[in-house]
Design goal:
By secondary structure, the chain is α+β, with helices and mostly antiparallel strands. The protein is built from three helices and six strands; from the N terminus they run βαββββαβα.
Length: 103
């Protein structure tokens, strides 16, 4: 769990080390909403919003902060901590259909 104020710089650090084709999964505490950031190339990212709204964005890494700030406010409005998962190879069906953890 990462503090919401530090999430953008943490995402940048993790994306630099992430191999092409792998992705980061940002989720709420309850794991019911997510923002997925896929590294599709060295200079290309795919951001998938999966929560209140479902949208996809293709952008360059330098534009990430500009799009991530409003997404975090929209998808995680009351969250103070965000779960950050570093995932393997991106397969869209698996990434979007991963459900909540059953306790």
């Amino acid at each position: 769990m990462i503090d919401k104020t530090k999430i953008i710089e943490t995402v940048r650090e993790r994306l630099e080390k992430l191999p092409v084709g792998h992705y980061l999964d940002l989720r709420t505490y309850k794991r019911n909403r997510s923002v997925i950031i896929v590294k599709t190339g060295e200079e290309d990212l795919l951001v998938i919003e999966n929560g209140y709204f479902q949208e996809k964005f293709r952008l360059k890494p330098e534009k990430l902060e500009k799009i991530l700030k409003p997404l975090l406010k929209k998808e995680f409005p009351r969250s103070h901590k965000i779960r950050l998962y570093v995932m393997d190879r991106f397969v869209e069906e698996e990434a979007l259909n991963s459900g909540r953890k059953v306790l």
